[in-house]
Design goal:
The protein has 370 residues and is of the alpha/beta class. It has 15 helices and 8 strands.
Length: 370
């Protein structure tokens, strides 16, 4: 901290002809870049070397985005991390190389997040991608990270406002969002709220509804630069889910049936339905025609009058709907198909058998609605 540096400079007396004023002491900040796991490890290594060179206590601010915030949020759970930075580096290495996150851990995290009224794609991103990488659930909040003795650089977590990035000029003052343990907001606009209230609903500066503050795992997802691209984020999550479905026994046989136009009766209809729903979302995100996939779903649900009726309505109304209405249609259709038209017991049995053979926890897909 600058105060520490100033105190040290006071030891330089007149005999050494060193004259300093407190205002002359520079404010030094270290900025950590994005880059996922690489950025997390790189920042940890940089801080470790700064500690070895006795330079950490001259830094006033430590700022990061994306992967760098993954490193920061873990360090600041310890009020004295800068005094034992080499130990913290060793602990990070141990955690990243030994601790395993199972599929069941991920599903449990998602189910927990769905109970929050602020549940969003950020929760999915944090659970599916960030959690397995950092291997730390971290249920504490940013405002819980205290530093009573002011031993560490002051942390600033930075995030990108996706909506402003996509819809405004790239130099818009509201693109960058900052989060500290005291306040969160847009520095370019000078608009901040108390971090402990971050997640609550405000109107004209007044709280309409107070809600719980986000935890640190959500923060890591929120600060991820990848979320700046809505389209790429959804494609990435879709590919992860497809990867899990491909691990189900019998999946390769089903793919062969698809490739040879084999009758759908010879392949598992549950897996086929799941994949078609994922194909449907992927086609919509890529701006492709969704109706052929809906027709394929209708063929799969032959004999199910209720499902046929719903899918026919989707086809009839699709071209007249706005993009927002189409999004809702897909969401409702996906939920309806998963809840009512997919044989959940048989699908879960296949998933469970697969996970047992791999020595993993059973996949509870019935808890994870599409």
């Amino acid at each position: 901290m600058c105060k520490v540096l100033w105190d040290r400079l006071q030891g330089c007396g007149e005999n050494d002809k060193c004259y300093f004023h407190e205002a002359d002491v520079p404010q030094i900040a270290v900025l950590g870049s994005g880059g996922g796991l690489r950025a997390m490890v790189a920042l940890m290594g940089t801080l470790s070397e700064l500690g070895a060179q006795k330079l950490l206590d001259s830094i006033q601010y430590l700022c990061g985005v994306s992967g760098s915030t993954w490193c920061m949020s873990s360090l600041y759970n310890d009020e004295k991390w800068s005094l034992q930075v080499e130990q913290k580096e060793a602990e990070m290495v141990e955690k990243l190389t030994s601790k395993e996150i199972t599929f069941q851990d991920i599903i449990d995290r998602i189910n927990e997040a769905t109970r929050d009224s602020n549940f969003s794609l950020t929760d999915i991103w944090a659970a599916l991608y960030v959690y397995p990488v950092v291997r730390d659930k971290e249920t504490k909040s940013v405002s819980d990270q205290t530093d009573k003795e002011m031993l560490n650089p002051y942390p600033i977590y930075a995030a990108i406002d996706r909506w402003r990035l996509e819809n405004k000029d790239k130099h818009d003052k509201g693109i960058w969002f900052e989060i500290t343990r005291h306040e969160s907001g847009y520095p370019g606009c000078g608009a901040f709220i108390e971090t402990s209230k971050f997640g609550s609903i405000f109107k004209e500066g007044e709280i309409l509804e107070e809600r719980d503050e986000m935890d640190l795992l959500y923060l890591k997802g929120l600060c991820g630069s990848a979320l700046g691209s809505w389209k790429e984020s959804k494609k990435f999550i879709t590919s992860l889910i497809k990867g899990w479905i491909k691990s189900i026994p019998g999946f390769n046989r089903m793919l062969r049936g698809r490739a040879t136009n084999e009758s759908v009766s010879t392949v598992d209809p549950n897996m086929e339905c799941m994949l078609l729903l994922l194909d449907l979302h992927e086609a919509f995100n890529d701006g492709m025609d969704c109706k052929p996939i809906v027709n394929a779903l209708m063929a799969l649900q032959e004999g199910n009058e209720e499902a046929q009726k719903q899918l026919q309505q989707v086809l009839e109304n699709w071209d007249q709907q706005s993009e927002a209405e189409q999004v809702k249609t897909l969401s409702d259709l996906c939920q309806e198909m998963c809840l009512n038209y997919i044989d959940q017991p048989s699908l879960e049995e296949a998933l469970t058998l697969n996970s047992i053979s791999n020595g993993k926890y059973p996949h509870r897909l019935t808890q994870f609605r599409c």
